[in-house]
Amino acid sequence: MKLRLTKVLSVLLCAALIIGTQHSFINAISNSPTAGVTAGDINGDASVNNKDLTRLFQYLSDWDVSVEEDALDVNGDGKINNKDLTRLFQYLSDWDVEIFVTSHCNHSGGTATCHTKAVCEICGRAYGNLNPDNHAGGTELRGKTAATCGEGGYTGDTYCLGCNKLISVGESTNPTYDHKHIERQGDKAATCWALGYTGDLVCTDCGMVLEYGTYISETDIHLHTRKVNDYAPTCTDYGFTGDIYCDDCHKYIEYGTNIEPTGHIHTEIRNNRAATCTESGYTGDTYCTDCGTLLSAGTVIEPFGHSGQEATYYRKGVCEICGEVYEDYKDFCCYDQLNENQKGIYNTIDAAVARLEMEWFELPFVEGTDAATMESDIRVALHAVAYDKPEYFWMPKNYVIQQFVDSFTGEHVKTEMSFSILSNDATRGYFNVTAAEKDAMQAELDEKIEEILALAQTYKTDFEKELFLHDYLCENISYDHASAENPNNADFRAYTIYGALINGTCVCEGYSRAMQLFCRKLGISCGLISGIGNGGPHMWNIIRIGDGLYYLDLTFDDSLENSGLEITYLHNYFNITTSQLQQDHELDDMYEGSQDYSDPNSDFNFFETNGDHTEYYYYTAVGAYIYANDATDAAQFALEKWQDGHTMVEYEYAGSINATTAKNLLANKLVGKLRVAGSAELPFGNYLILVFKK
Q: Around 455, how many Cα atoms within 13 Å sit in the side-chain half-sphere?
């Protein structure tokens, strides 16, 4: 590369460099119209930088121009860079100096390619021609196609990526003939009316038929068939399975067979109804639902009866199924309260008493019952017989037993019983009477009982019958004070119905047994109750009237014989409640089967009231209760008694008034009819007694 300067530039530049006035003479630089390069780009790398200044310094050196290095800091900023060259060219421009860069270098080095010239290793500028054979920048394969199983391929042409020139031409390749994806096409099954075909093997990649199929003869497989002429059998008629017909070939391919009659498979029960507690049911008639034929007639189902709580002496039997009362209250029967072992003993004792058994007799027992339990059960059973049988006036109260135990095992094996002698007279045996005496006394009793029953039966209601019996017995019996005060020497008849009805004298037990006997014969449930009355052993009755249980104490009502009044009995203890009774009575303990009753001093009851009923309490039932300031009903009751010929009447009056007030309330309504009046205050009530004028 050669620098050409005008004469003026050469003189000025040389002078300037020599005298060191580098800052004052370079004013401008411009492009030569023929140079074709950027102004200031001395080294020809298309940019203006400190390399151009270095190059310029090299040129000057070649011209033997001595230049100090500091002289290159044209702009005086203490650094040598492209800014100094720019400043120099600016000075030259100001002096109208033109610089033309011409090629004067003997270029060498570098490598030309198909798309770039060689770069001179001296000046760094491109020079020379392109080398079409030096393909630099990589190649690219174009137009390549792979061979398939049915078509050939092409290896592709090679192109230079630098000059985009075809370098080499590719070659064609043969098909691979490797059919990897094969399927059978056109196959179809043979039918009963047309040939089938196995199908061709076809390459799905190239579509080439690799193997042709074969035809398949018609088959006996009928795809579209149906059953015709079929019909079901009935209970009595044959059916038919039906013929098989092909809709494709229109042929009968199978003929049906007959089907036996089914018989009566589908049946139902008609006219059936369930039995109830009281009404019969019916199992129902069996009919065939297919043909309607009656196959069999049903049978009657008997009523199954009520079930649920059994009736007792204090409640009715209520059916758990229908809710109806199916059993009335049971009578006061001690036997019903006993366990199995006690009932067996009861029956044996009952029979022995009835026949006046004079010898030892064996008592039955449930297997496994020990001797101690047996002793307790004997006393319970004997107590029950005595309380259930008021007619046994001859029954002794004392007895002896002997028990037999296996000496090896200690097991109870036998118990015998005998009634003890109660009299020094050996001819009387073990009982209070002989058989002959018993028969004679029984005859007297039977006649008296029938007489009293005939009178009682003239009354309609149970309450009226009870009231009659109460009054009759109180009028015709006197209390046997001697027997009560000296029981060891008492006449045994004082404790029996015989003493009450024939002798007309007895203790509380005679009153109670007589009342019990008559009530039972009249269909009124009545039992015996034991306990303490006025501090001593006592007996009275429990009775059912209507739906209520009441206590009845004839002995206490028949206690006015020495009172000085013109009457001998009252009705203070007629159908009283538990709370009233407990004011001056104490009941023996209620029987419990688990207890030991072998002790003869342990008294007990089989019954007690269950609720306090007042409907048939005497004074309430007959209208003989005087309320405060109101005695109208009570007065009417007195008038009726007076008109019926009664000589007296008794009342209970309210606790809110006194006896005088009660008497005056009645006197105002009974003017001219009363003769005397008396009053009594008992633990559970206040009573007024009026005696009519004769």
A: 14
Q: Which two tokens stand for residue 694?
A: 């004769």
Distance CA 341, CA 349 (A): 13
First CA to last CA across the chain, in angstroms? 189
**What would the two tokens of residue 616 be?**
């048939």
The owner of tokens 């609720």 is 611
Copy the structure tokens of residue 175: 């098909």
Q: How far is CA 3 from the centre of its chain?
A: 118
Of the candidates 609, 611, 639, 613, which has an alpha carbon nearest to the alpha carbon of residue 624? 639
* Cα–Cα distance, 148 to 125 (Å, whole number): 53
Q: Are residues 519 and 552 in contact, defined by beta-carbon separation less than 8 angstroms?
A: no
pLDDT of residue 321: 86
Bridge partner list, 126: 119
Residues of 236-264 as b/e, b for ≥16 C-beta within 10 angstroms? eeebebbebbbeebeeeeeebeebeebeb
Please, what is the Cα angle at 407 between 401 and 409, to 5 degrees?
Answer: 110
Q: How far is CA 544 from CA 456, 579, 610, 686, in A?
A: 17, 17, 11, 25
- DSSP for 411-451? -EEEEEEEEPP-SS-GGGTTSSS-HHHHHHHHHHHHHHHHH
Query: Is pLDDT at 677 greater than 80 in this prediction?
Result: no
Query: Quick check: pTM over 0.70?
Result: no
State the pLDDT confidence band at 670, using cuts at 50, 70 and 90.
confident
Kindly state the DSSP code that residue 137 receives in the 8-state scheme. Answer: S
Give the Cβ contact number of residue 269 at 10 Å.
13
Q: What is the pLDDT of residue 662?
A: 80
Q: What is the dihedral of CA 585, 588, 592, 598, to 10 degrees?
A: 180
Distance of CA 424 to the CA centre of its chain: 76
DSSP string, 52-82: HHHHHHHHHHHTT----GGGG-TT-SS--SH
Cα separation, 605 vs 610, in Å, equals: 14
Instruction: Provide the pLDDT confidence category of residue 634 given band limits of 50, 70 and 90.
Output: confident
Looking at residues 65-72, what average pLDDT do you find?
Answer: 58
Beginning with the edge strand found earlier in the chain, give each strand of the sheet holding 361-362 in spatial order: 361-362, 412-419, 399-405
Residue ranges and CATH numbers for the domains of the chain are 2-102 (no CATH), 139-173 (no CATH), 182-216 (no CATH), 225-259 (no CATH), 267-301 (no CATH), 433-621 (3.10.620), 622-692 (3.30.1370)
DSSP secondary structure string for all residues of 459-483: S-SHHHHHHHHHHHHHHH-EE-HHH
485-491 long-range Cβ contacts below 8 angstroms, 24+ apart: none
